[in-house]
Amino acid sequence: MRVMLDLHGERDAEYKTNYHHKLRGRIWQALDGSKYDAEHGNDEPLGLAFSNIFPWGDIDEGDSRNLLVASPREGMLATLAENVQANPEFNVGDMPFTVTDIRSLDVDVGEPGTRGVLETATGVIVSLYDHHRKEYGIAADHQDSQDPTYWRPKHTVEPFRDAITDNLQTKHNQFAPDYIPGPTDVDDPLFDGYDLIKTYSLPVTVTEGVELDVVLSKWRFEYTVRDDTHRRHLNLALNTGLGGRNALGFGFINIVERTKPGETELEGQNAFA
């Protein structure tokens, strides 16, 4: 499930590329005092992902922008919505906004047989841990083998594929019913195709006073929904994000193409638009 926030720019502002920590802070401000407050800062997946403020670019006073927030936890999104309706001031560091509307969106990859493409709206952080490195013969970036190695194109797509599937399995274990097999419990892959758009590095404030240089990648993922279990896996990825640091706004994905069974690609794209 997702909610869309419509934002009104309150004054001219430079679009900050290091918005992640401040935007996460405003979302947690909305969850302050709720039953979710105790989860702030723990190491478990929160089941929360969000887009960048879009469209991208410097802000003029009066501009209209948007923000998408996703979660498999309907109550979390409802708490967020109630708070921003009561407190519409939505400042992201030096970028001041007011929330003018908020609405829910039901986003679904489609019934079995549907073909489509998911695209990353924000960069994916993929950390390769010791078991991934051993399997693929990847040298560690650090002396401590427990520290992750950020995925780069030189590592090839296979460890990226395995790492995002393992990460999604962790989220499945937390948010999906026990009787449904997870993405690592089935033999077929999550996606049919992996098209790398770009890789880049970015300094990110992970908590006040702590900054990391992370390596991110942007992708287009082709999929064909095999069955209802696969549909649940793909929709979970839409609701939680892919890879790590989703609660900082990384790994957020959107459906950019979708063709239902029996439709041509052109019909499917027109219907989706």
Strand order of the largest sheet: 2-3-1-5-4
What is the domain total for the residues? 2
Strand-pairing-aware structural class: alpha+beta
Give the averaged pLDDT, no decimals: 91
Q: Please identify the top-level CATH class of the largest domain.
A: Alpha Beta
Show unreliable segments.
none
Question: Could you give a short description of this structure?
Answer:
With 273 residues, the protein is an alpha+beta fold. It is built from 6 helices and 11 strands.
Plain-language structure description:
It is a single chain. By secondary structure, the protein is of the alpha+beta class. It has 2 domains: 2-105, Alpha-Beta Plaits (2-Layer Sandwich), CATH 3.30.70; 115-272, 2-Layer Sandwich (Alpha-Beta Plaits), CATH 3.30.70. It is 26% helix and 29% strand. It contains 6 helices and 11 strands. The strands form 3 sheets. Strands 2-3-1-5-4 form a 5-stranded antiparallel sheet. Strands 9-10-6-11 form a 4-stranded antiparallel sheet. A hairpin with a 2-residue loop joins strand 4 and strand 5 (95-105). The protein is globular. The mean pLDDT is 91.
Features:
273 residues; alpha+beta; Alpha-Beta Plaits; 2 domains; five-stranded antiparallel β-sheet; four-stranded antiparallel β-sheet; 6 helices; 29% strand; globular
